[in-house]
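W.,

You were right to be curious about this one. When I first looked at the sequence I had no strong expectations either way, so I just let the prediction run and decided to look at it fresh. Below is the sequence, 320 residues in total, followed by the output.
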Amino acid sequence: MLIDLLALVVGLVALVFAADYFVDGTSAIARNFGVSPLLIGLTIVGLGTSAPEILVAALASLQGNPGLAIGNAIGSNIANMGLILGCTALVAPLAFHSGLLKCELPVLMLISVVCYVLALNGLSVVDGMMMLFGLAAFLFWLVHSAMVERKNDVLAQTIAADIPATMPNSQAWRYFAVGLVGLLLSSKLLVWAAVNIAQSLGVSDLVIGLTIVALGTSLPELAASISSVLKGEDDLAVGNVIGSNVYNLLAVYSLPALVAPGAVDAVVIGRDFPVLLAFTAVLFILGMGFSKAGSINRWEGGGLFAAYLVYQWVIFQSVT
């Protein structure tokens, strides 16, 4: 058990560093080939930051543990909204200035509802293909909208400005290779450790995915969001969470459907997905503002964080 816990920690830490190397290397290669910083930020960086979840889901599904993959996708989204946005708003209130961000909120709400409906009758290969098609459509729409509004939208400008400066091609390819190999090895170690821990504790791999793995893969985004809000980049902090949630649903959640199709655990349908939809609805209401400018103040952030802790307590109670 101790070895499994150590392996889990090592896997999570290595996964974070490998993802950073992978994103930096891939971004530099793309920039050296003349791809615009905005396009890099919206696609390569956006998908690259979800690489840990994608690889964990792929390996877990291939090894016959789709519950871990589903738990990671749903648990990461709940952690993004409850833990990350909640804690970030406690550090400094979040204001939604970007029109692009407000367009993404209803899209995220729609995607969440559709993924829930698909889960009701179990996940099939067709469902997985639909999610991947949805991901391609989302990326096309997002890039097109951002390119049109790049001179006027604060989020588009911030994303483009935050892309690192160019690095030599030799170094960029080295970063890419190290990051890719690191992602593969660390995700394999993480899945192995998580499954062993679940078996030792007598709980499902779904529970481990919803809690330890989801929390671990979300911690880097917590640090990035707090750093962004301290720099006054509120829209980037929120945009990272919304983008990550879309990628988790369409890229990560699609993998169990494609690799190991079958029924979704009744607990996911009755407890976890409704919690995800509730958090998404709250984020939608706060972000759109309706009668006022969209924002998340400290009280609302505290409420999101408290709700996340209650959800984790409910999971803990269900396995004790």
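Here's what jumped out at me. The mean pLDDT is 83. And, maybe more interesting for your project: The chain has one domain: 2-319.

Coffee later to discuss?

I.
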